[in-house]
From TrEMBL:
Keywords: Cell inner membrane, Cell membrane, Membrane, Protein transport, Transmembrane, Transmembrane helix, Transport. Residues 128-220 form the TonB C-terminal domain. Residues 52-157 are annotated as: Disordered. It comes from Novosphingobium resinovorum. The chain crosses the membrane at residues 13-36. Residues 52-70, 147-156 have a biased composition (Basic and acidic residues). It is a single-pass membrane protein. GO terms for biological process: protein transport; transmembrane transport. The keyword Transmembrane applies. InterPro entries: TonB-dependent_transducer, TonB/TolA_C, TonB_C. This is Energy transducer TonB.
Length: 220
């Protein structure tokens, strides 16, 4: 296409140059006195020249590309028909009856419990010595030999624990006589000879309790 356009432009330029030369020639002929008819013929002959544009050569179309051995398209089975509007499933209406009201069974209230009987008189009591004169004399008669030989006398305060059977289960010196022999003899005699009526609780049951007394050691 560019070559054809260039060829066409060249033809136009040549034609314009020829026309310009003809006009120059005519002017010159008029100036020099040439015959008018001769100039007219030349002008008619020249101006009637048809300038034909050469048609550009059509370019040959490019050769078609070589055919490739393409596999045939796969055979696609038509899709199964789809039921667009299926029939709706049947609707079952279930009527639920209202729940039955609860059955309230009223029972008679149990009679009130009778009040507890009033408590009886308390039987509680403290421990009491039993036959104190007798066992006290026995304790004093067992005078320690060494203390008697040295003529030592004294008073021993003791505190004993009396069990439910009325016997002394433990003894301690609460006030010393100043003589270890006499203190030891007093506790030993209380555990061997002393007897008591045990203490009782509110129901009259014997219980363990404590008792305090004094043993006097005196030479005749």
């Amino acid at each position: 296409m560019a070559y054809a356009d260039q060829q066409m432009s060249t033809n136009k330029v040549v034609a314009l140059v020829i026309v310009a030369l003809i006009h120059v020639f005519v002017g010159y002929a008029l100036v020099t006195g040439l015959a008018y008819e001769a100039a007219k013929k030349v002008i008619n002959k020249v101006t009637t020249v048809d300038i034909k544009e050469e048609k550009p050569k059509e370019e040959e179309p490019p050769p078609p590309p070589p055919k490739e051995d393409t596999p045939p398209p796969p055979i696609v089975a038509p899709p199964p028909p789809i039921n667009i509007a299926p029939a709706p499933p049947p609707v079952q209406t279930v009527i639920t009856p209202p729940p039955a009201p609860p059955v309230v069974i009223q029972t008679a209230a149990p009679p009130p419990a009778p009040p507890p009987p009033p408590p009886g008189p308390s039987k509680a009591r403290g421990v009491k010595p039993k036959g104190q004169g007798s066992w006290a004399a026995r304790i004093q008669s067992n005078y320690p030999t060494r203390a008697a030989r040295e003529e030592r006398e004294g008073r021993v305060g003791v505190r004993v624990t009396v069990g439910g059977d009325g016997k002394v289960s433990a003894c301690s010196v609460s006030a010393s006589s100043g003589s270890p022999d006499l203190d030891e003899a007093a506790c030993d005699g209380m555990q061997r000879y002393a007897r008591f009526d045990p203490a009782l609780d509110a129901d009259g049951n014997p219980i363990s309790s404590s008792y305090s007394t004094a043993i006097v050691y005196k030479l005749n």
